[in-house]
What we know:
The protein is mainly beta. The chain folds into 5 domains: 28-161, Immunoglobulin-like, CATH 2.60.40; 174-293, Sandwich (Immunoglobulin-like); 301-408, Immunoglobulins (Immunoglobulin-like, Sandwich); 418-516, Sandwich (Immunoglobulin-like), CATH 2.60.40.3620; 519-617, Immunoglobulin-like (Sandwich), CATH 2.60.40. 11% of the residues lie in helices and 39% in strands. The protein contains 5 helices and 44 strands. The strands form 9 sheets. Strands 6, 11, 13, 14, 16, 17 and 18 form a 7-stranded mixed β-sheet that branches. It has a 7-stranded antiparallel β-sheet with strand order 32-31-28-29-30-33-34, with no helix packed on it. Strands 1, 3, 4, 7, 8 and 9 form a 6-stranded mixed β-sheet that branches. A hairpin with a 5-residue loop joins strand 29 (434-438) and strand 30.
Amino acid sequence: MKTIYGYIGxxxxxxxxxxxxxxxxxxYYSDGQAQPAxxxxxxxxxxxxxxxxxxxxxxxxxxxxxxxxxxxxxNNLEMDIKGENxxxxxxxxxxxxxxNNSTVSFTNKELNDYVLSLFKNYAGEAGIYxxxxxxxxxxxxSVISEAKAPLVSNIVSSTVTPYDNENTGYKAAVITSTDISxxxxxxxxxxxxxxxxxxxxxxxxxNASISYAIEINLPKTNTEYNWSKKVTVKTTQxxxxxxxxxxxxxxxxxxxxxxxxxxxxxxxNLSVSATKSGYIKALASEPLTISITPYVATPTFTTVPxxxxxxxxxxxxxxxxxVEGAKYQVEMDIKDAKFSQKAILESGLTSTNLDINNAxxxxxxxxxxxxxxAVTLSxxxxxxxxxxxxxxxxxxxxxxxxxxxxVTYDNSENTPEVFYLVGEYCAWKHDQTQKLYKTESGSYxxxxxxxxxxxxxxxxxxxxxxxxxxxxxxxxxxxxxGNDSKNITSYGGNNNTSxxxxxxxxxxxxxxxxxxxxxxxxxxxxxxxxxxxSKMEIVYDESNxxxxxxxxxxxxxxxxxxxIRSQMLNMEVTPQNTEGHFETDxxxxxxxxxxxxxxxxxxxxxxxxxxxxxVIKE
Length: 618
């Protein structure tokens, strides 16, 4: 018995000791006495030498942080690109030192590898990143436990030039035409040469087929410089290119839009980046610094109603000042959404006004709220309008100031009479059924897409199990195949999921047509490939009680076109035969498109009185 008591005593003491140790930071940490590390300054610039890979490149030193007591500290030396995501998820941790160690050095090879690793974190969607001079920032975060936020040191910076660590013999292009330092662009000379460029050929291996991208960005010395906001002006396989007034104007307007800056005279850096097929890196030339004055003025609204009641029959219009030679695109989004899911009300306008179609604008707001995943479709909504003036690509246009308007819109569904197709696919729940809608002929018709239809279903005009006789084949708007257990099981075999279903309750005629296995999202992003990866998934939205086909995480480049198409019969869903929230290709109205590079979610609400497509930028 004494032995047992002894063990219990030891156990209690151990628990108390552990509790004391785990609470140490909480008990003795003092915010008032805590002092973060102070990181010493670095050279303003440093060029990493590939011929001295084992020589020390940079040494980092910092004062030991003070926690107010003798704590066990881990000091993390972090690196990020200036102006990017502020030491977020793309940063690189160069070292983690425990204790009072406050000095660490890196060789040329080590530092170069870390810089290239950071570039990879910021690579574009195609995985390509450019090896070029970059403005780096460094800091030390000191951690004692997960219970306390880390102490963060001051930030020091250095402009570092890395090299290609896999092909040290590769060389970037060298721009040879360097005598132009200032350009004033003219709207009357859009197609004339503004800047003739020539450069020495880059070397990316013997017999390499090299592509060059002419790029602009703010100078690295600009405090607002952001490495990832560069704009590609043109691409070529030659070693010269004559940039026109319009080439440079559109590129500069696009660059300033990325920085949310007003269009005006701007000093930029212009460089030529070289890459080759199958090579995920690009080598950038030393930049030219040029001051460019563009010719595009910002469009300014002259007429914007404060309120719109789209249900009243009142006519409304928007108007703005002209921008010489431009076309216009009118855009709308929910207030404070920052045009993340913008609806394009009209594009290609040459006039400086837009007359509002109340019915079309009501639908645009309804679909826009679905794109924002709004569950409750209220009849009042604050929206923002803006005008984009452009000359070529709409995305290189210049934007007006956004104007807020309070809109009362028609959010009624206008749903015709329905029959319910209830079955195993929806767990026999009437509130989750797909529906058939009454047509002018008196029959009921709808697009049904569901798995396992062969497990049984019925058609009824009732939204519930109300005790009526479910045994008769045709009984006051009910269709089965016999007694209560004789559900319709003749369809849905052989992996077929999709049908156009029509039922006439007057004569009991059931028509099943357009039998399909699946629907595909096909476009330039997947080379219109009929593969399993292109198939859309069947989704039931519990919150909105709606069915749709969905494809998420679709990576598209600006200008990519696409369609929704069936697997076997090649039926198409296009902008010409549907409505919703999407963009239409201006050169081919049978194609959907996107105007911005990014990831998208595509939804097709197929089981609606009027089916519609919603495109959501993720």
